[in-house]
Amino acid sequence: MNLSALKKQEERKREAAYAPAARWQHIQQTITWAEANLPPHLRRNRPRTAKVLPITVGTRPPVQS
């Protein structure tokens, strides 16, 4: 038996022992964990925040008397 056939046989055994509902739940948990551990600028569906405009000094028009 070559290595490729052995690998496929072991994968079939592992898949047969894994309940589909439990497998799907583990996949969802893995995705949730991975998304939660991404840096903020790479996250999907991140909350929108209001844009804050910088306050600049000395930009007011001169007061006319």
Describe this structure in words.
This protein has 65 residues and is mostly helical. Helix content is 49%, strand content 0%. The protein has two helices and no strands. The chain starts with a helix and ends in a 29-residue tail after the last helix.
Q: Strand percentage, roughly?
A: under 5%
Largest sheet: none
Radius of gyration: 28 Å
Structural class: mainly alpha
- H and E order: HH
Question: What is the average per-residue confidence, as pLDDT, rounded to a whole number?
Answer: 80
Distance between the termini: 98 Å
Uncertain runs:
none
Task: Give a count of the beta strands, DSSP E runs of length 2 or more.
Answer: 0
| Proportion of residues in helical segments | 40-55%
Number of H/I helices: 2
Name the shape in a single word: rod-shaped
Q: Keywords for this structure?
A:
65 residues; mainly alpha; 49% helix; 2 helices
Present the secondary structure layout.
Blueprint: H1 3-17, H2 20-36
